[in-house]
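Here's my example:
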Amino acid sequence: MKITIIAIGRLKEKFLVEGTAEYLKRLKIFAKIEIREILECRTVEEEGKKILSQVPTNSWLCVLDVKGTAMTSEKFAEKISELNLHGTSNITFVIGGAFGLSDEVRKAADFLLSISEMTFTHQMARFILLEQIYRAFKINRGEPYHKN
């Protein structure tokens, strides 16, 4: 499986850089992960065009959005498993910038996902998403990382 994460901006905080690197290392055994960073633009519309130009062909597109569907870790794992079972080998996640996402990006999405009702920085969202992707693979393999 190939997973692409398209994110606005670069990670700046040392703890997020280190945490992200750790989850990227852990995920290597499950999937090929690529992070594509896009520099912040003056408008969300401009960012939207850049985001959509970076989405790989034939990729299932999941956009992180506050108005998206909230899922438990188990449901998220189930979603990834379903995609894999139906032959989807490329998944792209989009994390917008500080000012959100354009309607064009939302409309292009196959799925809108909310990681929480709380508000996080887009940099924290990247870390949280990577941890949840890792957790999903562990859940799907029945491994002990995930415990209630």
